[in-house]
## 1
Amino acid sequence: YYSEKTVFDGREVQAALEGRYGAATRFSTGGQRSINLYSAIPVYSDISESEVAGAVLVSRSTYQLLTYLYELRLDIIQIFLIFLVLSIALSFGLAMTITVPVVRLKNEAGNILDESGNFRNHFTGFKRGDEIGELSRSLTRLSGNLENKMEFIDKFTSDMLHELKNPLSVIKSSAELALKSPDKTPELLRRLLDEERRMERMLGELREISSLESRFEGEQKEEVNLSEVLPVILSRYSRIEFADKSDGKCIILMNVDRLVQAVCNPVDNALSFSSKAPVQVSLEQEPNTAVIKIADNGPGISPGDETKLFTRFYSDRPEEENAAHSGLGLSIVKSILDFYGGSCRISNRTEGGCLFRIEFPM
């Protein structure tokens, strides 16, 4: 207001010259508007304090506040630009560490199967230690399990078709002979009936072993004391010699019906090889493990067949005895023990016969 003026004629100055306090508020003109505050007080002469000799005028403008605001705006703009650059860099980093690996996993998932549904590729499995790496390793395990399951199904189907082919061939040849030789019809019909029973038994065991894994998960487990339950299971047999060599507290967590299968299948197998000789069954206790040993007096097993005996449809019996056995009993036992964390193996005894060893975690 007083720029380029030689006479200060504002009302606040006039009030001070009249001996009063004067104040005024004015807005600046021009491009940048600000508020100016003016204060004026009278100055008295030394001779008489009632005579006003002049006035003191002070002023304060908000222009400095506007300057601070402009500086703050510039700082905000700078901070915004910095965060914008950081956001772009972070987005690029996320794209490289998350989006790109996820897209890679998606592409691998799309190419894992061929047009016929067979596995042609596998998940590579990242070595990263974050969630993406864990996801890739989980997918790798999942695809491996699926591939093993598909191989199991294919081999299972192939073995089943091969095994069913033999009784069907016998049925066909017997039927043809019956038509050509009426005098042998009763004998051939008995042969047909035997083969039909063999197929029925085989199909029943096939249904059992194919549904084992799906039925395991829903089975109710309970604490079972083998020292108490095993004699009850073996009481159905007449040629069994049982010896409990444990402390009487061999407790395992298992479904009782599965325990009966795991014990009875090898016992039946041993009895069939032992003719009229008794089969020795013993219960022993090792650190954290309950061991059931089944010893027979049969001819033993051929060298190298220790693991083959647990293969589906495999039998080490003479050809004339195979019709009464499907070769699935020990395979079922192994599936049960694998699920419950146990194990089984078979070996020849030095005194003759076989020793079947079953182990359960206590």
## 2
Amino acid sequence: MVSVLQEPGIKLGRYDPNRDPLGYYTLFVAQLAEKYYGIPGLKQQILGADNNPNPNQLITANFPDGKSDAAFYYLSDAKFDKTPYVTLPDQINLSNPDFAGQYAQASYTTNIGQIFRGAPIQVSIAPLRGGNTRVADEVIHLLDSPEGANLLSQFGFLPSPILAGGNINTIPIALRCQIQGTYHNL
């Protein structure tokens, strides 16, 4: 699979890491792949510079975008869209909590100095300010139920606790009882 990505003329699409988490997740996967496959410079070869990707590589709308032969994509999106995909080894695909320490070796610093480190990708939801608290509560209850867990599993998500980030006091009281811990992106 790696050799295909190294072929001349392959157009590999990716998201801007300064605007979309999938952009820096892509960089993490490529950093981890360099070590896993023992190919120094692989990330640079297939993706170019971290902060200055080739504009022809950037995906700004749904894939396929007509400009790329392939793209890094969330498994859940590929399954939902019925897009063919290749599954990468657990050691690099950011899916297996057993490899969290290894994933944390990958990092990216945004153009404003914010540092993100590799970690297993988990479901994220956020009740919006001014949104319908009752509906947000129902969604969280659904995701925390066996039915929700089954639905998430069908789309490639692993079970995970409900964690809160930011100022917990801004989370509606009705939703706080669902929180099982806090999230800190170090």
